[in-house]
From TrEMBL:
Keywords: Glycosidase, Hydrolase. Belongs to the glycosyl hydrolase 35 family. Residues 499-552 form the Beta-galactosidase galactose-binding domain. This is Beta-galactosidase. Residues 364-471 form the Beta-galactosidase 1-like first all-beta domain. The active site is at E157, E233. It comes from the Bacteria. Transmembrane segments: none annotated. One of its GO terms (biological process) is carbohydrate metabolic process.
Length: 580
C-alpha cells in the first residue's frame, strides 16, 4: 500500500516529495467506451494524475433512483485510471459548477425550500445520503487501500458563494465518517475573501486560475502558509455559450503559464485536459445580467480535443512537463479526417403536437412542478372571444415559440430579455417553451423553468392553461420508428426528419448542422445534443461507439426551419469563429 500525505513543503507520496501533474476528464462527458483512450493519452502527455468531478444529477436525476453503471460507472473510471498507472483526484461537490446543468445539483433537490450549499438540515440530509453513496465507490479505491485516489475536494469554490463554516464542517465530517483518509482540499479563486470564506483550517487550500501564476500563488501562500502550493484548476481554455464566439487560448502563452507554475514547484490540475461533450440536455448556463446557455461542445480548447485527438497544445504542454517529470516516449496517433458524406433527410412529419393536457390550472405549470426533466413543455390556452392582442410573459425561461391555431407568430428569448409579442385573432394560443440549461454558477441554482407567472393579453391574465410536457428523447424514439415520407409536404412549425446511411465500421463523425435552425439530433437512439444556428458551434460530435457497422439511423427534431433537407457529415469539428 502506498501512502499519500501533505508534508511541510510538498505532497508526500510513499514518503517522498511529489509534484501532482494532473488533468481533468469528466467521465460524464465522454462515452464510456472511450474513457480508457482518453486516460492513456493523458499519461502520454506526461500527466501522473486524472481529476474528475462527480455529477450528482447524472447519478440521481430522480430522488432515490441512484445509478452508478454505464456512463455513471465512476468505479470503473477510477479503475481504468489505476490500470494506466496513474493517481486520481475526486471532486464530489455536491456542487460542481463545471458548466454542467444546475452545477450538478439534481432538480428535485433544488426545487422547494431547502437552503442550498448551507448547513440547513433538510439540504444536509440529502447531501449526506449522496456523499455516502459516492464514498462507497471512492473509499475502497484510495491509495492507502491499494487504489488510485490521492485527494478528495470538499465543495467547489465555496468562497464565491457563501461563508457557512458549519456547512463545510459537516461535509468534512461526512467525508471522514465514510472512511476517506486521504488529504482533503478546497479550491477557490485567489482573492483574500474567497480563500478565507471557502475553507477551514484543517483543509488544504488550493487555487483556480489560468494566468499570472506567481501573483496568484503568492495570494494562496498567505492563506496556506505550509505544504504544497496547488492550482486545482489551471484554465487552459474556456467554454462557449450560444450566440458568443469560440474561445481559444494562445498555445505558447498557455504553455509558458504552465511552465511558470511547475517551475515554482506547484502542483497542478489542468482544467481541462479533455473537455468532452455536453451530450443530451446536460449543458449549464451562466447569468451575469444576461442568461447565456452553454453550447453542446465542451472542447474547452483543451490539449486533447473534443474527439480525443491531440492538438498543438498537447505537444506544447508535453514539452513543458518533460522539463519536470518523466514523459513517455510514445506519442498518441495524430487525428485522422472523419468520413465526409451527405445523406438526404426524409420528412417524418410533426413532433410537438401531442394531445394537450386538459386545462387543469388557472396558471401555467412549471417544468419543476411537472417534475419534467426534458427540454420542452407546450402551454395551450384559449384566446378569450377569439381575440388577439399584446401578449406579455413575465418572464419566459428560457425560449418560447408562440403560435395561434398552429401558425407560428414569433418567439420570445430570455437571453434578449424579451417579454411581449403581438398575437393575431384566433382560437388557441400555444407557447412551446424550451429549458435551455440550468444556471450553474452563483445564486440562480434551481431556478424554475417554463412560463413563470401568468401571461396576460392586453393586460388581462389568461386562465385555463394546459401544460403538456414533451420528452424529446421519447419523441425521437417514436419518430425513429416512423416510415419517412419523401413527399415534399411543407410543415409549418416543428418538423421531424430521418436519414439512413451505412458505415463499413464504427467511426467518430462530425455532423454539420449549419443548414438547420434549432433542435436536437440523435444517432441510433444516442442523444448527440442540441444544435442552434445562433452558433458559434456548427458541428455536433458523434462518438464512434454511438455508430455501428452497417445501417445507421439519424433522427433530427427541428423546432424552426430546415433550410436544406440534408445531413452533411464533415471531416472535423467546426466550433465557430474565434475573437481573433
Ligand atoms: C470554476 C469552476 C469550474 C468551472 C470553471 C470554468 O473554476 O470551479 O467548475 O466552471 O470555473 O470553466
Amino acid at each position: 500500500m502506498t501512502s499519500f500525505s501533505i508534508g511541510e513543503t510538498d505532497f508526500l507520496r510513499a514518503g517522498l516529495p511529489h509534484q501532482v501533474i494532473s488533468g481533468a476528464i469528466h467521465y460524464f462527458r465522454v462515452h464510456p467506451d472511450q474513457w480508457q483512450d482518453r486516460i492513456r493519452k493523458a499519461r502520454l502527455m506526461g500527466l501522473n494524475t486524472i481529476e474528475t468531478y462527480v455529477a450528482w444529477n447524472a447519478h440521481e436525476p430522480r430522488r432515490g433512483e441512484w445509478d452508478a453503471s454505464g456512463w455513471n460507472d465512476l468505479g470503473r473510471f477510477l479503475d481504468l485510471i489505476q490500470a494506466e498507472g496513474m493517481d486520481a483526484i475526486v471532486r464530489p461537490g455536491p456542487y460542481i459548477c463545471a458548466e454542467w446543468h444546475n452545477g450538478g445539483l439534481p432538480n428535485w433537490l433544488t426545487r422547494g425550500e431547502r437552503e442550498l450549499r448551507s448547513s440547513e438540515p433538510t439540504y444536509l440530509a440529502e447531501v449526506s445520503a449522496y456523499l455516502r453513496r459516492v464514498y462507497e465507490i471512492v473509499t475502497p479505491r484510495q491509495i492507502d487501500r491499494g487504489g488510485p485516489v490521492v485527494l478528495v475536494q470538499i465543495e467547489n469554490e465555496y468562497g464565491a458563494y457563501g461563508s457557512d463554516k458549519a456547512y463545510l464542517e459537516a461535509l468534512v465530517a461526512l467525508t471522514r465518517e465514510a472512511g476517506i483518509t486521504v488529504p482533503l482540499t478546497t479550491v477557490d479563486q485567489p482573492t483574500d475573501r474567497m480563500l478565507a470564506d471557502g475553507s477551514l483550517p484543517e483543509l488544504h487550500k488550493t487555487g483556480s486560475f489560468g494566468s499570472r501564476s506567481a501573483e496568484r500563488l503568492a495570494t494562496l501562500r498567505a492563506h496556506q502558509p505550509t505544504g504544497p502550493l496547488m492550482c486545482s484548476e489551471f484554465w487552459d481554455g474556456w467554454f462557449d455559450w450560444w450566440g458568443g464566439v469560440h474561445h481559444t487560448t494562445d498555445v505558447a502563452e498557455a504553455a509558458s503559464d504552465l511552465d511558470e507554475l511547475l517551475a515554482a514547484g506547484a502542483s497542478v490540475n489542468i482544467y481541462m485536459f479533455h473537455g468532452g461533450t455536453n451530450f443530451g440536455l446536460t449543458n449549464g448556463a451562466n447569468h451575469k445580467g444576461r442568461y447565456l446557455p452553454i453550447v453542446t461542445s465542451y472542447d474547452y480548447d483543451a490539449p486533447l480535443d473534443e474527439a480525443g485527438n491531440p492538438t498543438e497544445k498537447f505537444f506544447a504542454f508535453r514539452d513543458v512537463i518533460a522539463k519536470y517529470a518523466p514523459v513517455p516516449e510514445e506519442l498518441p496517433a495524430p487525428a485522422v479526417a472523419a468520413p465526409a458524406f451527405s445523406v438526404p433527410l426524409a420528412s417524418a412529419g410533426s413532433w410537438t403536437d401531442a394531445a394537450a393536457t386538459a386545462p387543469s390550472s388557472s396558471a401555467p405549470v412549471t417544468f419543476d412542478e411537472l417534475e419534467h426533466l426534458s427540454a420542452l413543455v407546450r402551454y395551450d390556452v384559449m384566446l378569450p372571444e377569439g381575440r388577439g392582442g399584446l401578449l406579455r410573459i413575465d418572464p419566459v425561461r428560457d425560449h418560447a415559440w408562440v403560435s395561434v391555431d398552429g401558425q407560428p407568430v414569433g418567439t420570445l428569448s430570455r437571453t434578449r430579455h424579451e417579454r411581449a409579442l403581438r398575437v393575431p385573432d384566433g382560437r388557441t394560443l400555444s407557447i412551446l417553451v424550451e429549458d435551455q440549461g440550468r444556471v450553474n454558477y452563483d445564486h440562480r441554482l434551481g431556478e424554475e423553468k417554463g412560463l413563470i407567472g401568468t401571461p396576460s393579453l392586453d393586460g388581462v391574465r389568461l386562465t385555463g392553461w394546459g401544460s403538456t410536457p414533451l420528452d424529446v428523447a421519447e419523441l425521437a424514439a417514436e419518430v425513429g420508428s416512423r416510415v419517412a415520407d419523401s413527399s415534399d409536404d411543407v410543415i409549418s412549425g416543428p418538423s421531424a426528419w430521418i436519414a439512413e446511411f451505412d458505415l463499413d465500421s464504427p467511426a467518430d463523425l462530425f455532423l454539420d448542422t449549419s443548414a438547420w435552425s434549432k433542435g436536437y439530433a440523435f444517432l441510433n437512439g444516442f442523444f448527440l445534443g442540441r444544435y442552434w444556428r445562433n452558433g458559434p458551434q456548427r458541428t455536433l460530435f458523434v462518438p464512434a461507439p454511438a455508430t455501428t457497422t452497417g445501417a445507421n439511423r439519424l433522427v433530427v427534431l427541428e423546432l424552426e426551419e430546415l433550410f436544406v433537407p440534408t445531413a452533411d457529415f464533415v471531416s472535423g469539428a467546426v466550433l465557430g469563429d474565434t475573437e481573433e
